[in-house]
Write a structure and sequence with these properties.
This protein is mostly helical. The protein has helices at residues 3-20, 23-32, 48-56, 66-86, 89-111. It has one domain (3-111). Helix 1 runs antiparallel to helix 4 (66-86) and helix 4 (66-86) packs antiparallel against helix 5 (89-111). The relative contact order is 0.16. The mean pLDDT is 75.
């Protein structure tokens, strides 16, 4: 298996994994019949307003999904590497913000780690 074929399979696996992380939120919405604290637009949750108002001021990253951050990072990275192999900027450019916003989220999880280690500072993935 050459590198390009490996990267294409990695892109497929990571993309399916990234979009499946939202299934737990859908299950939670159906059970509670409430959409509060659900990330409908996961790629927009690292916008400056959310970071400044919700996370930096409160020091609480519970509004961010750690599994989604990991999935977004691996998906975007695999697509960028695939695009670089093909020398295709139409694949590389749209996936760079995913890497950038994931790195911001990782920093936020590190910076605002739970003071009380008995309760995690992020939403755990419940299946």
């Amino acid at each position: 298996m050459d590198l390009l074929q490996f990267l294409s399979w990695a892109c497929i696996v990571f993309t399916v994994g990234m979009f499946s992380t939202g299934l737990t939120d859908l299950k939670k919405m159906r059970e509670s019949k409430n959409a509060d604290n659900i990330q409908f637009l996961p790629f927009l949750t690292t916008c400056l307003n959310l970071v400044r108002v919700k996370i930096v001021r409160s020091g609480d990253v519970q509004c961010l999904s750690f599994p989604l951050t990991v999935a977004t990072f691996f998906t975007s990275t695999s697509w960028v590497l695939y695009g670089l192999q093909l020398n295709d900027s139409y694949i590389v450019v749209p996936n760079m913000p995913g890497i950038f916003t994931s790195l911001i989220r990782f920093y936020l999880f590190w910076r605002f780690a739970a003071v009380n280690q008995s309760s995690p500072s992020f939403k755990s993935m419940q299946i």
